[in-house]
Amino acid sequence: MCKSKIENRKSKIARLVILGAGESGVGTALLGKKKGFEVFVSDFGQLKETYKQVLEHHEIEWEEGGHTEEKILSATVVMKSPGIPDTVPIVKKLKNEGIKVISEIEFASKFTDATIVGITGSNGKTTTATLTYEVLKNGGLNVALGGNIGKSFAEQVSEETFTNYVLELSSFQLDGIETFAPHIAVLTNITPDHLNRYDHDFSKYIAAKFRIAMNQTADDYFIYDADDEVITEWLSEHPLQSRLLPFSAKKELKQGAYIKNNEIILTIDNNKFTMAIKTIGLQGEHNTKNAMAASTVAKLLKIRKATIRESMERFQGVEHRLEKVLKINNVMYINDSKATNVNATFYALDSMESPTVWIVGGVDKGNDYTDLLPLVNEKVKAIVCLGVDNEKLTKQFGNIVDMLVETQSMQEAVKIAYRLAERGDNVLLSPACASFDLFTNYEDRGRQFKEAVRQL
């Protein structure tokens, strides 16, 4: 068993307090209990019934509907769920008291010796992480998928002994790391996102993403998009310790992956791998880049070339990312609920080849919609706004499309889109916003969309 640095700080039983009883919070509670911590879970909101049952079953103390300061401030260490900002009063008090506040990723990493592949980026990280996991699994590795996707990293560390992890990592999760260092880090791209969380300062968000590599050494690898000017500029000013393996759709590279004659060419040292782009299951330049990143990870971990090619050919994508739901009256309904920022929606609109009724809106994270204007002008015939506050969207797009309708429920949005769409059109849910005004999360939003479409 890996001994935690946290555990060794005090000879008496260390007290682990967890703020937020969602997937990461409950997973951390299970791991903490197994490793001998005295565990207390506190949630300002209400716990899901399933999570209550898990905590009760494992005899873990919890509270909901508020924080008992005395119990929280007695902590040796606090795991803060990624959705909780540093600005909330209880987190400020903890930091003033000098109590360590970390993320689930930091905590769980102390209890595994597995090889970790960490994947972050504003867009494409879920697809890249899932694709990477599939390739490694198909290649016979003992591997788990976690982080910002599926079952929490902490719970998986507590339950099984995996020798490899593929972790999708958000900037919020990376904000709470201190010593966490993936052997292979992937940065898919950086575009403005979550700026409301970063004081509307893009450089703070960029720095948060680059935390994925801050503890890497010369024995580790950093895979990144060499076409992304934000990334390349940051790297030129902040050199990394790790070995750089770029990928590019625009230029030839001596090391890393690039495109030539409609083929991906990947070179690591003197080892070359090629794959025809037309054979990849997911088409589009952004998906080709996701495939380049995943293939680079697979080659580093010694997966056979034939396995990589077969995995890329078979992979059909992830739920809520340009997911074709149904065709009704020759209108295709597409679920892109995972598009929670402008750049993701840019990809979605760019891929539309028919007139599109676009369902957009939610919690605006400091979005600038300017880049979407040409695409909306070219491809969008009508806009259905779906959110509590649609003012910014109506101002931006009201004069560009012939029809803009405001709605506040998914069922209403889909019914209106159904009436506006004609044979040969698309109806695209690609919100460019967070979901928390009307939905639990983007998955809830996507599933409500699919259910509403099926009920037409």
UniProtKB/TrEMBL annotation:
GO terms for molecular function: ATP binding; UDP-N-acetylmuramoylalanine-D-glutamate ligase activity. Pathway: Cell wall biogenesis; peptidoglycan biosynthesis. It is an enzyme of class 6 (ligase). Cell wall formation. Catalyzes the addition of glutamate to the nucleotide precursor UDP-N-acetylmuramoyl-L-alanine (UMA). InterPro entries: Mur-like_cat_sf, Mur_ligase_C, Mur_ligase_C_dom_sf, Mur_ligase_cen, MurD. It comes from Marixanthomonas spongiae. GO terms for biological process: cell division; cell wall organization; peptidoglycan biosynthetic process; regulation of cell shape. Its main location: cytoplasm. Residues 119-298 form the Mur ligase central domain. GO terms for cellular component: cytoplasm. This is UDP-N-acetylmuramoylalanine--D-glutamate ligase. NCBIfam families: murD (TIGR01087). The gene is murD. It is found in: Cytoplasm. Belongs to the MurCDEF family. Residues 320-433 form the Mur ligase C-terminal domain. Signal peptide: none annotated. Its EC number is 6.3.2.9. ATP binds at residues 121-127. Pfam families: Mur_ligase_C, Mur_ligase_M, MurD_N. Keywords: ATP-binding, Cell cycle, Cell division, Cell shape, Cell wall biogenesis/degradation, Cytoplasm, Ligase, Nucleotide-binding, Peptidoglycan synthesis. It catalyses: UDP-N-acetyl-alpha-D-muramoyl-L-alanine + D-glutamate + ATP = UDP-N-acetyl-alpha-D-muramoyl-L-alanyl-D-glutamate + ADP + phosphate + H(+).
